[in-house]
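Consider this today:
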Amino acid sequence: MKLCCYCGRENDVHAVVCSECGGDNLRRQDEPPPLEDTLAQRLANPVFLFRSLILISFAGYAMTYVEHFWGFRLLSAESRTLLECDGYGSPAVIPVQVFHLQSILYVTSLIGLYWFVDAARILYACLLLAFTFQCLLGGLTVQTPLGGFVGYVATLAAGAILAMAYSGPLKSRFH
């Protein structure tokens, strides 16, 4: 079998171009990658990029979760008072149990996306939609600088993950 260096699809040993994406950069599976395999070449592989974005999203979510529950103690009294205003004026207060359930479902969907499970793709899209509505109804949002930065990175990764999961060469990999 030959592996496509672009989309990661397995092709027949006699193939000249990839049956999935039409790329002509094929190599045998038992053949080691070339020495000039750089990060730029790896990022050109959609499977590698997709899985990297999933890991970035997971790390960002884990950092936000840890900061929210344990990093709070490291802040000054003034900062803690300000952060307690998070959700002020919210028409819909979300119970902590719902937050924990969403966290479990989010991590589960990321694991499923990593292995191209179609149900995980649907769950991930639904969770992002639910999160969007929570942001609209959540009232005032107060974050630490680290939490804000990690949130922006995670949001960018989530958008890229969603776009890659529903379009391009990765769409057909979901089963």
Notes: The chain has a mean pLDDT of 83.
